[in-house]
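Sequence in, structure out.
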Amino acid sequence: MTQGLNAGHRSDNQLLGFGLYMVALIAVVLISMLVKHTSDRVPILQLIFFRFAICLLPLLLIGKLTGAVISLRTKRYSDHLIRGFSGMCSIGLYFVAISLIPLAAATALSYSVPIFCVVLSIPLLGEWIGVRRWVAVIVGFVGVLIVSWPGAEALSLGALAGIGSAIAGAVVVIYLRKLSDTESPLTSSLLYNSLGAMVFAALCLISGWTPLSDQDFVLMLLIGLLAGIQQLCFANAFRFAEATFLAPFEYMTLVIAAIAGYLIWSEVPTVSTWVGGIIISCSGLFMLHRRDKMQKLES
């Protein structure tokens, strides 16, 4: 996730890193828009299947063009399985959230991944969390509650799906960090998407396959291709630029998602979505800054 396809040395090229990161962010927004546009006609299971299956094509193509070793061999299948199923849960729940709540709200909730990363890194990585990061975690949770519980009597199913997606996404980030010691990013991506394609193909067959129109089939292909481009650009962006430089730009997607939601679906983001999203964003940026500072002190 934070490394290129060929886990090689780091290169300093902020402009290239920024360009790749922006392409990845645009791909994320486009995928979200396509999922929301088709979710009332195409079952969620089929949406997720196409996302995983078609995503393999650009990964294999780039691997071949760059001469990267394309292999599914590994000695850490258990870690890959945990990363894989966590990723499937994260994407599946995010697609559910997009289909049920405004695009801006789902996007804001997705920003809480760093918050859950900090909490889960204690039992999963044995990390020690200082007082300042705990304060940031609590503030971030307040932001999550503001976005997902803006005066209703109970959390909506869409909001719960968004929170669940962020928790599962945090597990993915932690296991990618663990796997990066020995596994190439290309191997991890191929194993992950192959597993996802097989699992959701089986689930689609069990639940029954819904025939697609030609237009929806093309849109499904586009979702998968965009997912592959997103993974490749995200992975390689961090080869050329520091995470602390790139991360703030991610929060631009909230504005883009809000504009898209308003123009296409007449969704007007609530004040709670903006306030909660800003709180979550600030909390995530502070924790990234603290982590980067601690890593520099340890090196």
